[in-house]
Amino acid sequence: GDSVTQMEGPVTLSEEAFLTINCTYTATGYPSLFWYVQYPGEGLQLLLKATKADDKGSNKGFEATYRKETTSFHLEKGSVQVSDSAVYFCALGGDQGAQKLVFGQGTRLTINP
Amino acid sequence: NAGVMQNPRHLVRRRGQEARLRCSPMKGHSHVYWYRQLPEEGLKFMVYLQKENIIDESGMPKERFSAEFPKEGPSILRIQQVVRGDSAAYFCASSRQGRDEQYFGPGTRLTVT
């Protein structure tokens, strides 16, 4: 079945450091890919998405490119802030759109000032 | 435009009791999804509903769990005879159409004592 594997956390960085959180997937067809962020005590917020190969999703300085050849959707940010501290989830949806989402296990990110 | 509403936010039940979790989708959304998040894990899909219809319940445990989304009112996830292993955060998400991105509520944290 479909699955998502994320870089294990926790990840701790200093402010202004470069961030990469790795995500690879296994799926049939052509799924959509998503990154969600969860702040403490809150629900998930959609951070960015890509719906086809070579698409780049971006939001709030975060970027991720849908790489079909490597089945990857790595999250990157050039300069992180303390406010980026959260848990990040990579997810895939069916090739007909979102429908049910399959999530990775999450990566906890802490940014120190 | 209010987001996805879930209540209660926290629910404590003793073993053997029933738990009822409610989800009101965003205005204009007619598709509801329920996910469960165990401690330190990613979210796992449980069930996908439209008004008065269960579309996909492939993630629901076969016993004690049920879900509904009536023509009027919120979607309800019902857990009968709760056990300690049911302790988790339960998230609801909604979308306008089945192919659209999903918006998540803040979750209900169920604790079974």
Tell me what the structure shows.
- The complex is a heterodimer of chains A (113) and B (113).
- Chain A is built from no helices and 12 strands.
- Chain A has strands at residues 3-6, 11-14, 19-21, 23-26, 32-38, 44-50, 56-59, 62-65, 75-77, 86-93, 102-103, 107-112.
- In chain A, strands 2, 5, 6, 10, 11 and 12 form a 6-stranded mixed beta sheet that branches.
- Chain A is globular.
- Helix content of chain B is 0%, strand content 50%.
- Chain B contains no helices and 11 strands.
- Chain B has 113 residues and is mainly β.
- In chain B, a hairpin with a 6-residue loop joins strand 7 and strand 8.
- The mean pLDDT of chain B is 93.
* Rg of chain B: 13 Å
Unreliable stretches of chain A (pLDDT < 50, length at least 5) are none
For the secondary structure, the number of strands of chain B is 11
| Mean of pLDDT of chain B | 93
Radius of gyration of chain A equals: 13 Å
Distance between the termini of chain B: 37 Å
Number of helical regions of chain B = 0
Average pLDDT of chain A: 92
How much helicity do the residues of chain A have? under 10%
Total strands of chain A: 12
Structural class of chain A: mainly beta
What's the main sheet of chain A like?
A: 6 strands, mixed
Fraction in helix of chain B: under 10%
By secondary-structure content and strand pairing, the structural class of chain B works out as mainly beta
Order of helices and strands of chain A: EEEEEEEEEEEE
The coarse overall form of chain B would be globular
Strand content of chain B: over 45%
Low-confidence stretches of chain B: none
Please summarize the sheet with the most strands of chain B.
Answer: 7 strands, mixed
What oligomeric arrangement do these chains adopt? heterodimer
